[in-house]
Amino acid sequence: MPFYEQPQRILLPVKVAFMALTFVLALLFNLLPWREVTGLPDMVALVLTFWCVHQPRKIGIGIAWLAGLLMDAGNGALLGQHAFAYAFLAFAAISLHRRILWFSLWRQAAHVLVLLLASQLLMLAARMVAGGAFPGAAYFAGSFIAAALWPTATFLLLLPQRRSESVDENRPI
Questions:
Q1: Average pLDDT of the chain, as a whole number
Q2: How far is CA 48 from CA 123, 129, 164, 171, in A?
Q3: DSSP letters spanning 99-130
Q4: Residue 11 gets which letter from DSSP?
Q5: What pLDDT digit, counting tens, does each position of 90-141 carry?
Q6: Burial of 159 from C-beta contacts in 10 A (0-12 / 13-18 / 19+)
Q7: What's the pTM?
């Protein structure tokens, strides 16, 4: 049985500095100049969803709103477009975090896919209400790719929290 599927795993507390570092790296990834590339995942949304699911007491709607405003300012998008979508995403992820963690990683990815698609639909609706054109169905490809990255992101973001000693399967917890 892989490590991440063991029910008896005990993780160390997450450091806020590590969470901030992951947000900064995700923001830098999203702000790189590749607007014309189709299917790029929204890494800020993925990292936000991850931390809202795994650490709902440390990440909330306010941080999601601020990250969205940074994305709006960095991309030159309609101010509040990402902020509204990220706030909704954080609310939904925090509301469903216990349910999502109950499933295996690929079933978690299916839940995350629905959350990311809803977030992108909100961004698209805000853009279209402001007079923007429909970008096409390929606009939603990034959500599918981000959901496919969920198991990898889970593995990488939980690495610093793993205990150094191995867990004895015969020892009661």
A1: 89
A2: 16, 25, 26, 35
A3: HHHTS-HHHHHHHHHHHHHHHHHHHHHHHHHT
A4: B
A5: 999 999 999 999 999 999 999 999 999 999 999 999 999 999 889 889 999 9
A6: exposed
A7: 0.86
